[in-house]
Structure formats: structure tokens, C-alpha cells
Amino acid sequence: MGTSVCAEILARDVEGSLPKEFELSGCLLFNGNMVMDKSSLIWGQRLLRSPLGFLASRLTFSWIFKRSLGSVFSAGHPMSSEEGDDQWALLSTRGGYAINHKLIEYTRERVERKERWLGAVKEWKKGRLYFLWGMEDPVATAELQLTAWKELRPEDVEVLELKGLGHYPQIEDPKRFAQALKEILKVK
Questions:
Q1: Most buried by CB count within 10 Å: which residue of 53, 82, 126, 187?
Q2: Half-sphere exposure (CA, 13 Å, Cβ side) for 27?
Q3: Does position 59 have pLDDT exceeding 70, yes or no?
């Protein structure tokens, strides 16, 4: 969902409606599944988007959620039991899992706002644009999704590939992700 927020901020900057307090000097996007016709949604996402999404949300149990979430982690960095428990605790607070079919609406927004958001990524030139990508992502695959992102801005995007990491590189290998961030930000 963060990629959608970032794309909207870029769109507002391009159109000149971003508040003056915001001065963007760069933008980092990672493993965002924004080019929906190039996405590879997992079975749980497809089910939540279906007419049965409401029912699927209500019938979500811890083990189903953890199995689905774990499927987007790389084989070399599987989701730990503790991480699965933490993510379930976050989702299930006050029955939050029961609205998963509503939360998945961000994927439909990406279709509806495709021109605005992808256009903003293409047109925004006020700073550097970076892609930091977990190359083993089964949802936002490097072959389809990252390639589509690079086609939007072929001339001036820096791409850092995180081989062996999946959809959540920041969780799978936080130290490696932090090192890549330092490289982008030129921090020692």
C-alpha cells in the first residue's frame, strides 16, 4: 500500500498541489505491485478480490493468514514463526482480519488511478528515483513488474537488486536492506 501513497505524493508534486512543507529530493520504491496487468497476485489476494472476499475475510484463521503471507517470502529467508505471529496479531486486533476484502481494494485503486500514479512516476523529475527490489518476489516479480517500472523511466532510475529476497526485503533481511538504503542515501 505504501507504493500507492508514494505515487500519489509524486502525482501531487507533479501537479503542484503538494504542500510547500514537502520538498522531495528523491523517491525510493521497492517491490510495489503497481502495474496491475503485470502483477502475479497470490491465491489469497485473488480470493479476497472475488465475490467471495467477504466470506473469505470472515473465515480467515491464523494458520491460513500465515501460510498466505509466508508464501511471498523468499525460500532463503522464510517468514519466521515469530514474524507470522506478530503480523497476525496486528491484523487480528479488534477483528481486523474480517475487513481484508476491503483492505485489498488498494489493488483496484491501482487500476483506477493507473494513469495518474504511473504517469507521476514517469513525469516526476525533481529528484532521484530509486528502485530497491527483492528479486525473488513472487507477486511483484522482477521479470514482469520491475521491468514495467524500468520502462516508465528508462533513462534516469537507479535500480538496486536484492538477490535472494522476496516481497518484503525489509523484513527478510533487515541488515541487508538497511545497507542498501545507506548506499542510496550515501550514508556511512
A1: 53
A2: 28
A3: yes
